């Protein structure tokens, strides 16, 4: 059988090929020598041939020796434009939606037949759809919304309208940027930071998806510094510097689910199935001890759960075949198959009519009867909440709050972060950088501009105390872990209390009592040694692992699914059930395979331990540049604003930040 894999947005094509092809016996993954590979050329996003991209992740694979990577015939032109503000904000901060550019966005939309407007979060999509609807000059039926929390029927209607050419604009999230081709789309608009080079490429590729046509994306900044990110993304695409994506390895919850599915479908023999799963990239390194633990888990739940019949899913027959004999187990398993869950989600339905989609229980739980909220492009009024279903009607008047979903903060990729740093330290000839030249000049005058090879640290004394800003450009998630680590280490040197905050560019530490920070102290704080030990001390890893375990337990079948006709379980019930299992296993079976998986995924995914380690080593190699600006700088102001979010005040966050920005702009003569 011949297998084809097509991609224009992967930076590690060789590893991706290994995920498609069986791992051959004798490969490095299987413990032997690697097979030979016939490598033609890797496909680049622009169609140019290049050497295979190196990957910081897993090592080389040895798929079938007949596999080859083949480049496209000719490059596809990609045009990246930006809506540059006429008067750039000197002190930008995150949290803006870019709605100040609504009129210019509308002009762009009306200049072509069909457009896609991409946002990074579902809440942003709802707000932009609402804003466009308020000024839409044509029939509202030509404006649509598409995101993952909408019901399948509403999403299908938007997709059908695009294919038929009946829609002028669809506001969407990543639910529409993968796996669908709409030749009728003339342009794509990206609102806010693309967060990644591959993401921008993927979204730009939705426009004019026809042979020989150039892709076109218009970037809409939500604050001035995002113009730097657009210039960096264009520069990275020109160099073919695309992020790698690594497939999961040894996901034992998925393997356990697969084993029960096979046992339910006719049975399996242990040795034969082990040989089969080892031919996949995901389980090529699966050893006998772990495999026996998986079999023990599906037979009796492991030693701690052996006394509970509900966890006895599979029986090994006399002929050595594993099968499912219990009809109750079979029913529950069929309802649990898959890794995507809607547990804890509240369905939104009209009192009379169909469903609209789902919102998170935490949001709807704060609403009272009669409260209005914005969802699915409508202003809705809550009638009642019953059995994890919110019954609504269309509100007659007024605006409503917009739901927020977990996972709404997407970190900047390492590749784009490093490119942004390089752009800051470059020649500033790109049109985006010329548009914010006053902001860059002010940053250089007050402090310094970041540059590759150096690590900028700003020490600012403000009315509310001392703030130390650091800019590794490694992404929000890494910076949050790094901030907690530095706060712990600095507190050990000088007994103190530290507040901290992070964004994609850097982090801020705010000690309760002012202390001096010299280069030697900062070097010691950033030392890569004893990272895991200090990270464990600085974070509540037990609680983080407990959260990670909940999803693993659901996929592995430890948490029974909601049955048809029964009231769906709430998030509180899910947390209680998974938390009890986590405590039992931690106390009585600490070596349980799912506990180890939760810890692995916590370090690799939530804490991004590898990226954090790389960041510390990178900081150790850099020249430190310590500055003491007289006031907050364009780079530090967004971080300072972020640190205000958790403080108690009689004013809302945006009012306080806006007032502070105006004061600084007056001070520096804007």
Describe the overall structure.
- Residues 45-54 have a biased composition (Low complexity).
- It holds the Pfam family WHD_Lhr.
- InterPro entries: ATP-dep_Helicase (IPR052511), Helicase_C-like (IPR001650), Lhr-like_DEAD/DEAH_assoc (IPR013701), Lhr_WH_dom (IPR045628), P-loop_NTPase (IPR027417).
- GO terms for molecular function: ATP binding; ATP hydrolysis activity; DNA binding; helicase activity; ligase activity.
- Keywords: ATP-binding, DNA damage, DNA repair, DNA-binding, Helicase, Hydrolase, Isomerase, Ligase, Nucleotide-binding.
- The structure is a single chain.
- The chain has 670 residues and is an alpha/beta fold.
- The chain folds into four domains: 1-75, no CATH class; 78-238, Rossmann fold (3-Layer(aba) Sandwich), CATH 3.40.50; 252-339 and 540-606, no CATH class; 436-539 and 608-667, no CATH class.
- 38% of the residues lie in helices and 15% in strands.
- The chain has 23 helices and 21 strands.
- The strands form five sheets. Strands 3-8-7-4-6-5 form a six-stranded parallel beta sheet, with helices on both faces. The protein has a five-stranded mixed beta sheet with strand order 13-12-16-15-14. It has a five-stranded mixed beta sheet with strand order 19-20-18-17-21.
- A hairpin with a 4-residue loop joins strand 10 and strand 11.
- The longest helix is centred in the last third of the chain and has 18 residues, at 476-493.
- The radius of gyration is 27 Å and the shape is globular.
